[in-house]
Amino acid sequence: MATKKKPELADYKETVNAILIEELGIQNDEDLIPSLEIKDLNPDPDDLIYIVVRLEDDLQIVFPDSAEENFKTIQDIYSCVDRLMSKRTATVKNLL
Q: What is the rounded distance in angstroms from the CA atom of residue 96 to the CA atom of residue 87?
């Protein structure tokens, strides 16, 4: 049986970027530099909650309560998704 590799950010970054672009009103993914501070985008207070919900739905992950409060930069979102995807993969592997 083939061993499933740990997902890498590149495997789902397109999905993450599409959600960020839509929810934060970013013009294109070239503007999504990891160091970009979310506060500089002047998001509506609900924008980050919508991002979390959409990421959970699209990637089948579960964020901790109030995770969005810790998102200061785009990289924070990438890092959190990466950790959650790794946990999901480990959980599925343990179930097999």
A: 15
